[in-house]
């Protein structure tokens, strides 16, 4: 590896046999052994299917990962993103040495600290204090080094009162607080964090993101972060890796990787289709996005108005309302508008003026519920639309690169 490369993944694949541990049968193990003795390739590496859970397979063997290659430089904060089943967690387990690759090699410099799931790395019968020292010892740290970090770990975790209590008594939130504090503060060169932070409350998640940012930018350590919260990935990471069906789709600057992922997800959005269900107390019958000429569209110039037409039927529901929300490309809600519904058919025309949103990708989400949040109907994945930059700078009092909304400030010389 070159001087700045801290992690080198070369042709890494991981194969599993469905429903089995290992190959699952003595005959398969003997076949593997006999092939290796004769200097031949493992016969079971030639078979197997990609890890696509949406399709029925015909083989007992599945490639959870297939021919993954990438390099990571020291100090990079890398976001690993992809749909469920893309191979993200399998990849992190290989990088953390929880399991070995079927083929390929993983080379790294220094020590790796991992936080993969609640329960990993802690002994339930040992106290929080004992587990801190245990994890430090596993990383190869001396007792003196751990002592130097101990108070900082306990303070960050917020579990000082229970530090001498066996961790099996901890709630999942306490557990992940201490586990993250240990992983982030002990002096490893590479920090790997999976979706486990979702267990914590919002304040603790922000605290963790801040700490990972300090670890990467301040300490020059490398962070690998898996999350479905794209806003968090964008905030923390400078580079990204996109996974799909067990293969690496792309690696590059985080904004490019997020853009490619969001674009691929948009193509998977469900087309709205009304199927009458009289058991539903309220139902969305139709929904259309239209441009100023009245045609269905999912692309709008920055100065164009966006027109929405929808029909909703109410069958006996009390206090029903429709919620119309606009979200950014990272699933952050920008604003919500609500309207009460009445018995029978409800027909609406809604307009979003032009010169409001900066050019970018957005999603409109529609749901029918009650003030008590009893959900009647929803368009599951919403509708994606794009605001296009037409280059008409006279329309703007700001720029088109920062923020979400076009600036309302108006400047005058005094």
TrEMBL record:
Protein name: Polysaccharide ABC transporter ATP-binding protein
Superkingdom of source: Bacteria
Keyword set includes Chaperone: no
InterPro entries, alphabetized: AAA+_ATPase (IPR003593), ABC_transporter-like_ATP-bd (IPR003439), ABC_transpr_TagH-like (IPR015860), Bact_Polysacc_Export_ATP-bd (IPR050683), P-loop_NTPase (IPR027417)
CDD domains named in the record: ABC_KpsT_Wzt
Keywords, in A-Z order: ATP-binding, Nucleotide-binding, Transport
Organism listed in the record: Sphingobacterium anhuiense
PROSITE patterns noted in UniProt: ABC_TRANSPORTER_2
GO molecular function per UniProt: ATP binding
Similarity comment: family membership: Belongs to the ABC transporter superfamily.
Pfam families from the UniProt entry: ABC_tran
ABC transporter domain: residues covered: 48-270
PANTHER family: TEICHOIC ACIDS EXPORT ATP-BINDING PROTEIN TAGH (PTHR46743)
């Amino acid at each position: 590896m070159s001087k700045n490369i801290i992690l080198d993944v070369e042709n890494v694949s991981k194969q599993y046999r469905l429903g089995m541990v290992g190959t699952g049968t003595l005959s398969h193990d003997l076949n593997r052994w006999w092939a290796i003795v004769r200097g031949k390739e493992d016969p079971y590496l030639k078979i197997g299917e990609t890890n696509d859970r949406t399709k029925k397979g015909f083989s007992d063997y599945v490639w959870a990962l297939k021919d993954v290659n990438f390099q990571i430089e020291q100090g990079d904060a890398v976001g690993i993103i992809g749909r469920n089943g893309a191979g993200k967690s399998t990849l992190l387990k290989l990088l953390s040495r929880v399991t070995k690759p079927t083929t390929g090699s993983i080379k790294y410099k220094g020590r790796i600290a991992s936080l993969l799931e609640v329960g990993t790395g802690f002994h339930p019968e040992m106290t929080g204090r004992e587990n801190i020292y245990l994890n430090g010892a596993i990383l190869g740290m001396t007792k003196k080094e751990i002592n130097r970090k101990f108070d900082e770990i306990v303070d960050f975790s917020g579990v000082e009162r229970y530090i001498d209590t066996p961790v099996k008594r901890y709630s999942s939130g306490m557990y992940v607080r201490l586990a993250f504090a240990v992983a982030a503060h002990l002096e490893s060169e590479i920090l790997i964090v999976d979706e486990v932070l979702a267990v914590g409350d919002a304040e603790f998640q922000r605290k963790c993101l801040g700490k990972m940012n300090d670890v990467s930018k301040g300490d020059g350590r490398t962070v690998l972060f898996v999350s479905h919260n794209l806003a968090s990935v964008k905030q923390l990471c400078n580079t990204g890796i996109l996974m799909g069906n067990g293969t690496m789709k792309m690696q590059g600057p985080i904004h490019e990787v997020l853009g490619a992922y969001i674009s691929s997800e948009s193509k998977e959005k469900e087309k709205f289709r009304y199927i009458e269900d009289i058991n539903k107390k309220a139902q969305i019958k139709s929904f259309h996005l239209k441009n100023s000429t009245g045609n269905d569209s999912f692309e709008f110039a920055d100065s164009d108005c966006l027109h929405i037409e929808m029909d909703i039927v109410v069958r006996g529901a009390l206090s029903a309302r429709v919620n119309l929300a606009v979200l950014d490309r990272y699933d952050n809600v920008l604003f919500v508008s609500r309207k009460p519904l009445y018995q029978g058919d409800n027909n609406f025309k809604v307009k979003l003026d032009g010169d409001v949103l900066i050019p970018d990708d957005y999603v409109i989400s529609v749901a029918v519920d009650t003030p008590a949040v009893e959900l009647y109907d929803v368009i599951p994945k919403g509708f994606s639309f794009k605001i296009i930059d037409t280059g008409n700078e006279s329309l703007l009092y700001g720029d088109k690169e920062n923020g979400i909304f076009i600036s309302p400030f108006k400047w005058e010389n005094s």
